Description:
The structure is a homodimer. Chain A has helices at about 1-15, 15-25, 35-55, 55-85. Chain A is mostly helical. Chain A has a single domain, classed as Monooxygenase. In chain A, α1 (about 1-15) packs parallel to α4 and α2 packs parallel to α4. The N and C termini of chain A lie far apart (about 50 Å). The interface of A and B includes residues 14, 28 and 30 of A.
Amino acid sequence: MTVFGLVAGALTMLSFLPQVLRTARTRSAGDLSWGWLLLFGGGVGMWAVYGIATGDVPVAVTNVITLGLVSVLVVLKVRTREVEV
Amino acid sequence: MTVFGLVAGALTMLSFLPQVLRTARTRSAGDLSWGWLLLFGGGVGMWAVYGIATGDVPVAVTNVITLGLVSVLVVLKVRTREVEV
Lengths: 85, 85
């Protein structure tokens, strides 16, 4: 089941790459909700802790990386907001 | 740890509510990447199966609901695209 979990984690983790690339390319993040970014980032951070604490490798690894990608989206959202002002 | 996992799951799950509400209100989903939506939806679907198969209640429950919310975003993205055409 760990392999299955790693594939699931890889998909959810890698899914943020096209979103980061799109936002970086278009310099447009208006449609991304702050509520989503912050709540999701907080949840993913907790999932990372949950995975580490329970020794669940797929949950731990994927959520640490996802947290990194979501943080990039937050930075892009802040930066593109400045451009719009 | 299950409570911790449930809180983590609740955050990542509930985080999609503000995104769905924003997209529904603004009728604008251009900044949401198709790559993200489809890969993420696929990954969350697998996480739901992973949670059910391993009896991990937080992972199973939260990912089934998240899958529902992401599906709403996909429908909204399709619908708003028609409006733009």
